[in-house]
Protein 1
Amino acid sequence: MATIVRCSFCGKTYDMKDIKITAHHADATVFRTPCCNREADDRRWKHDYEIIEPDGTLIKNADGKVVGRWMGGRKVISIQP
Ligand SMILES: [Zn+2]
C-alpha cells in the first residue's frame, strides 16, 4: 500500500516507495527525496516529512480533544468552542 507523505523541504508530496535509500543506520533509514533530491531520514522527530492521512481522519490535540480533520491531503483545524 502506498504511503503518501508531504516533504518538509519543498512542500510537495511523494510516495515512500519512490524514495532512493542511501544508507541504513541502526535508528534510521536515510534517503533522497524524489521531489527535491534532499537528504532525509525516517526519524519522526526530525520531521523531514509528514505522513498524509486519508480524508476524514480526526486530528486530536495533546489532551485527546478533536480539533480538526484531514481533508484533501491537508490538516484542517477547526477548534470547536
Ligand atoms: Zn521535497
Protein 2
Amino acid sequence: MEKESRYETTVKRLIGHNLNAEEKVQLYNDWSPTFETNNKQFDYTGNSKCCEVVCKYFPKNIEHIVMLDVGAGTGLLAKELACKGFKIIDGLDPSSGMLKEAEKKNLYRNLFCTYFTSKPLLFSNPGGIICIVNRRSPFCESPDYVNKFFPLCDQLEQEGKWKKEEITTFNGFIENADRIIIVYRVR
Ligand SMILES: C[S@@+](CC[C@H](N)C(=O)[O-])C[C@H]1O[C@@H](n2cnc3c(N)ncnc32)[C@H](O)[C@@H]1O
C-alpha cells in the first residue's frame, strides 16, 4: 500500500504529467529525503546495472578515470562506482534537495546544481564512454527523446563523432518497466 501511494504521488506524477523544468525540480526536492528508501522498496537495480555496464569498458586504471554523473540524484550511482574503485566522480543535477543527499556521501569531487543542456560530446575526450540509462517508455514515446535526442544521437554517429557500442535492455523497476542502457564511444 505504501509502495502504491509513493508511486502514485511521485513517479506517476513525474511520468504522466507534463511538468515544466521548475516543477520537476520541485518534485525531486520534495522527494529527496525519501528517494532512497523508495528505491529500496522497489528493488531498483538501475544503478548497479549501469555500473556493471560501465565497468566493462574500464578494465584497468579505474582510479584515473574522470566520471560525470548526469542526473546524479542522491548519489546512488556514485556509491556503486566508488565500490568498484572509481575515484574521480563529478555529479550534476538541477535539484538542490537531491544534491544535498548526494553531498552527504562524500563521494563526489564536484557537484553542479544545474540542468544538463549541452551536447554530451562536449564533456568527453576521444575514447570516452557515454552511458545513457532510462526506462524504455520515455525513450520510445517522449517527443523530446523521439524527435530531438535520438535524431541528434544518430546525426552525431553519422558525422563520425561517436559510435554506438551497445544497447542493453533489462528489467528491474516499478511495474516491470523495462529499462535501456545505451553506450556510445567518442571518436
Ligand atoms: C530518478 S532520479 C535518478 C537519480 C540517480 N541517477 C539514480 O538513479 O538514483 C533522476 C534525477 O535526474 C535529474 N535530472 C532530470 N533532468 C535532468 C537534466 N536535464 N540534467 C541533469 N539532471 C537531470 C533529476 O533532478 C533527478 O535527481
Protein 3
Amino acid sequence: MGSDTPSLMRAWAATAPRPGMVLTERPVPVPGPGEVLVEVEACGVCRTDLHLTQGDLPPHRPLTTPGHQVVGRVVALGPDGEAATTRTATADHTTGANPATATTHTIAAGHATTTTHTGVADHAGGGPAADPTDHEATAGHTAGGPVAVGERVGVAWLRSTCGRCRYCLRGDENLCPASAYTGWDADGGYAPYVTAPAGYVYRLDDDAPAERLAPLLCAGIIGYRALLRAELPPRGRLGLYGFGASAHLTAQAALAQGHTVHVVTRSAAARELALGLGAASASGDAPPEPLDAAILFAPAGELVPRALEALDRGGTLAVAGIHLSEIPALDYDRHLFEERTLRSVTANTRADGRAYLRLSAEHPPDVRAVPYAFEDAARALDDLAKDQVSGAAVVMIG
Ligand SMILES: [Zn+2]
Ligand SMILES: [Zn+2]
C-alpha cells in the first residue's frame, strides 16, 4: 500500500440483526489477489443500506460496513499487482447512437445472441468481458485494460460472480447464485477505504463532483435495469411509483430516450421535483392515462395491484426493489389478463452498469445530491427512512 495509507480507520458498521449502525475503528483493509484498494471520496446512500441496517435483509456477516455507491481512487493493487476493470462510462462512449437506439440494441442483443463469453476471463484479470448484453459497447472494448493506482473508480453493488454457472455463461450474471454484494458480503463504502475485485469496478470521469457520480452507481444503474426490464415501446408511456434517488435518475434516462413519464408518489416535494425534471404528470394516486410500462420503486406490495390496473393492454410492471412488503391477492381479469406482465428486477449485470454510465456521460442527469458529513451517515439513513430526502443522499468521506 502507499506510504500515505494509514493502518487504522473509522468505519460505520451495521449492528444487524439488531437495527442500527455504529462507528467503529478497524484496520484499513488490505487488497487480496485481483483486488484494488480504493480511497473513498463519497458513498451514496441507498434504500438497501437501510434494509441491511434495519434487519429487513438478513446480515451475511457481523458488523459489515454498508455502502455500495462508492466513488474513489485506487491507491493500491493486490499482491498480483495487475487487475482489469470493467469497461466504463466515459472511456468507451464512442458511438453517436441515440440512447433509445442503444437501449433497443441492448435488449435485442440480450435475447437474440448466444454467448461465447465466459466470465472466467474477468476473474483471470484478462481484460474486460464481452457480455452478450453489451452489444453496443463493443466499440469500446479495448478501453478496459488493467486498472492502475491513481485511477478514479466506482465500486457498486455487484461485487463478484462465479463466472461459470449457467446464468453467468449466458450473460445473466445478476442471477448468479454465488454472487456477492458490496456492503453485505464484504465491507462497503461508509469508510475511508474499501477493497473491491478489480474486474467489478467502473472507471469514472476524473472531473465530475463525487456527490454527483455516487448516486449513479446503484440508484442509477438499478433504475436503468428496471427500465430495460419494463420493455417500453418507443416513445412509450412510463409510470414511476415512488420518486426517490433511483426514480429521479430513471425518469431522466427515460426522458432522454424520448418516453413520457408519469410519477405517482405521496411526497409533495418529490412531485415537485418530478415535474421540474420533465415528468408529464405527478400525482398522489393514479396516472392520468394508461401506461405501456411502470416501475415500482416504493417497497410497498399493496401498490402492485393498483399499478397493474393502470397498465394498458400488453403493459409491463417491473418491481425494482430488493425488498417488497406483501402483495395482496391479484384478480386475474383486472390485473393480469390482456397480457399484462409482472416482473422483478434482480441486481444488475456489469453490462447494465456500463451502458448506464455511458448514457449518463452522453446525457448527464441532473443529480439532486443531498450531501451528509461522514459523522452523519446514520442520520442520512434516518432521513431516508422517514422519506425526508428529496433526491439522493450522499455521505462525503474524502
Ligand atoms: Zn455464476
Ligand atoms: Zn443500492
Protein 4
Amino acid sequence: MINGDAVSERTAPIGRFDICMSPREAANWNSQRKMILQNQLVVPRMGDVTRFFLLLVWVSTAIAQTTIQFATVSQDIVEKRLGAYVSKNDQREPAVRQIFEDAGCAGERLTEQRVKGLKAPNLICTLPGATEVVIVVGAHFDLVEAGDGVIDNWSGASLLPSLYQGIEGVQRRHTFRFVAFSGEEKGQLGSKAYVRELGNTHEQVIAMVNMDTLGLAEAEVWVNHADSKLVQLMELTAAVVKLPVSGMNVDQVGTTDSEPFREKKIPAITIHSLTSATLPILHSPKDRIAAVRKDEYFRTYRLVLAYLAVLDQKLD
Ligand SMILES: [Zn+2]
C-alpha cells in the first residue's frame, strides 16, 4: 500500500512520533484507490443474524508532503484511566474532571457548560491553537446504570485527557475542544446543548470527532453518518500509522453525540467498536471492564490521536 521505507516513524524519548510522507509516497497514494468496506450492523430479529456488505467507497486523497507529530501516553496510563470509572451517573463528571486535571488540563482551560434539565454539566477542556477555528473531540460520560458503563462510554470519555496530552506539546493550527458530554443516554442532551450554544458564540467548528463505545474490537467508523472527507482522512491516517480501521454502520442501533452536529451541517464522524457479536453488551450488566480488549483499545487511542494531528494539518 504505502512504501515502507517512505514512512519514517521515530520514537523520541518522550514518545513523540514523526510521520513523514515523502513526495514519492504521496504520489503512490494518489495513484491508488483504496476501498473501505462498509459493513452494516443489523440488529438481529427472531434469531436471524444477517451481515452483508453494502457499497464500496472509493478514496483518493491529494497529499503533499506532510509531517504530523503527536506524543502518545503509555498503555499503562490509558488503562489506568479506563480503570478509574465510577458506576453512578452523579459521580461521572467529577471523575472525568480528575483525569483532565491529572493530564494537565486545569484552571482556565477546563470549563463547565450547564445543560438544561440535567444536574451534570458538559465538561470542556480547551487547547488553544494558532487560530480560533475549532475542532471538537467529544465523548459522553453518562451511562445507563445496568452495568458499569465502561464500554458505553467511559471508554470514550476517559480517553479525552490522553488525547489532549498527545497533542498538547506540538504546534497546532486549530483550537481543540475536548468535550465530555452529559446526558447522551437521555437523548443527546449535552451535545444538543453544546450545538445550541454555538449559535450564540458564532464559534467556527470545522469538524467534530465523536467517540462512543470503544474497545470491543479495533476501531470502526459509522461511515454513512460521517462526512466523506473526514472518512478519507481517517483512511489516510490508518495507512500512515499502520493501524486497523473499518467501516461499520450502526443505523439500526441508535444514535449518538455526532448527530446534533450533523444536523447543524458541521462535518462529523463517529468512531466506535460495535460488532453484531458484541452488541448485546450495550446497556446490559455485561458492560464491565472485563469486556474491554486492552490492545485494541490502546491501538484505537493511537489511531484517534494520529487522526487529530492529521486533521489539524489537513483541514482549513
Ligand atoms: Zn453511548
